[in-house]
Amino acid sequence: MNFFKPVAAIALGAALSASTALTTFAAETTLVISSWAPPTHGMNAMMWPKLIKMIEEATDGRVTAQIKYKLGSPPAQFDLVQDGAADISWIFHGYNPGRFVATQLIELPGYEGSAEAASVTYWRAYEKFLKSADEHKGVKLIALHTHGPGQLHSATKVTKLDQIKGMKLRLGGGVSGAVGDALGATGIRVPAPKVYETLASNAADGVMMPMEGKKGFKLTEVAQHSYTMPGGFYRGSFASIMNQEKFDSLSKADQDALMTVFGEPASRMAGQVWDQIDTIGVDATNSTADNSLNSASDADQKAYGEIAKPIIEATISAVTAKGIDAKAAIEFIAKDMAAN
């Protein structure tokens, strides 16, 4: 009789149990991540798992995290983290009008480059120029990132810039709101998770979002046609934030370990994910029969460049009033993005 197999199986099972127990025991701290997009959205399906892995590897498994949904609305995430109802979350700066001003520099039209390049540059610009504005006071800033170029998606095909005038568009706030106004559109402010029903009910004619929205928010069903501007009409600005007291409660070793992850590494990774999900959105558009991609003509690109100038000047003025050399920051962003 061969006793090896059952004995080996028992030993293997015991080893696996011990390994599992060790892993469980090693995770001394489990951080709660609050997220407001659907579980299938790239931020939840890709970005957070990657960040959790980075956290676990940096701390040798002592710190991990788990995602929880519906802890608060998208605009409530900053206060949610500041109050300790969640340890970590991501915020869209445009959801809190007046609260974030310096962050709008990265949202301006005219920058060329990927979301990864923009996100890396964004963190560097924060360290060099924007930190003094202290707009994330009350929480620990762990990453800054942007989505890809913001484009127009609508149920009716748009092929010319002047067709946007008179449209009702869902706009996320920040620079995108100013862009909608400048193009003669009527802005409708609803958080991203409400976009589908807003368009399905015909409360809006279209939406300005990155290409990822065609998949992430099912715009292939309700905003079949995309009108794209090279570099985008704008870029959306996000931050990943952590409760400061929770961070301070960690051991010095774990704090130091997390600081090798937070900042530029986490920003880069988030930007890479946005690039990936933008590509998925383009693929979804191209593979859906009644969807179309329509690029702005050279004439419309030039016209939009002129339309964008007052938006850029107004933003420079507002950020300068915060004590920041906004012109130098914009020059730095454009140059650094081009180099990435």
CATH 2nd-level architecture of the largest domain? 3-Layer(aba) Sandwich
Strand content: 15-25%
Rg, Cα atoms, Å: 22 Å
- Segments where pLDDT lies below 50 for 5+ residues? 1-25
Instruction: Tell me the count of domains.
Output: 2
Query: Level of helix content?
Result: 40-55%
CATH superfamily of the largest domain: Bacterial extracellular solute-binding protein, family 7
> Helical segment tally?
13
Q: Give the number of DSSP strands.
A: 11
Shape: globular
The assigned structural class equals alpha/beta
Description:
There is one protein chain. With 340 residues, the protein is of the alpha/beta class. The chain has 2 domains: 28-148 and 236-277, D-Maltodextrin-Binding Protein, domain 2, CATH 3.40.190.170; 151-234 and 290-339, Bacterial extracellular solute-binding protein, family 7 (D-Maltodextrin-Binding Protein, domain 2, 3-Layer(aba) Sandwich). 47% of the residues lie in helices and 16% in strands. Strand 6 (168-170), helix 5 (175-182) and strand 7 (186-188) form a beta-alpha-beta unit. The protein is globular, with a radius of gyration of 22 Å. Mean pLDDT is 92; it is low at 1-25.
